[in-house]
Amino acid sequence: MKQRLIQQVGRSARLRVLNELKRTQAMCVADLAARLGMSYMGVKGVCLDLQKRGLLDTWRSPQPVGRPQMLYRLTERAHDLFPTTSNAMTIAVLIAAQKLFGVAAAEKLLLVAFQEKSADYASRLKGETLAERATWLARLRDHDGHMSACVAEEGRPLTIIEHHSPILDLLGAFPLIARLETEMFHRLLGVPVQREETSSGGMFRATFVLAE
Fold it and tell me: Is residue 48 located within the same domain as residue 149?
């Protein structure tokens, strides 16, 4: 399935549009063209092509003045284009562990896995200040396929925003993972962390709010 989708997407312009929409949740053609340095008609053609392939859909966002703005966003099918590190076998093994050894067995296995991942991140994390360490952690997570970025806005808490989860199927099967991710961020950054998640169709976003 995934290989067929990648073959359909093919050209780099399509991949650039898909990546930008994944990171921004939804955008109009004009904004996409400006961010990608492409012509309006070029981006419009790419979006129409991806829509025909079932990878994009549209919705109209109300504006204070004038007509609603048409935005493009990813469909659930487009999720298969982005990297995943878990699979049905992993979930099956964890469920089997629960049946054989009790409910806590899967939780213990996941806890060990996250402790090892946390130790790996800690060995590579750099920076003296919270902002520096958060930026570096976002880079490590981005490298692992989470499409992660550290966002610093004046007057607002520092946040790490992730637009993809390579373990989304595992997260759905074991919601405990959301807490384990939050605790991992807390251990690595040394500050309280609040995790907020939104997921609909082809859109996913996890926001980690860091309290200094």
Answer: no
Confidence of residue 76 (pLDDT cuts 50, 70, 90): confident
pLDDT in tens, 15-51: 889 889 988 888 999 999 999 899 999 999 999 999 9
Instruction: Determine the average pLDDT of the residues in 57-62.
Output: 86
Cα torsion 210, 206, 63, 46: sign: positive
For 208, phi then psi, to 5°, come to -105, 110
User: Both tokens of residue 59?
Assistant: 């919705």
Do residues 191 and 212 make contact, with C-beta atoms less than 8 angstroms apart? Answer: yes
Report which secondary-structure segment, H or E, holds 148. Answer: strand 148-151
CATH code where residue 129 lies: 3.30.1380
The answer to whether the CB of 176 falls within 8 A of the CB of 192 is no
Distances (CA, A) of 69 to 9, 27, 157, 177: 26, 9, 30, 37
- How many Cβ atoms from other residues are within 10 Å of residue 91's Cβ? 17
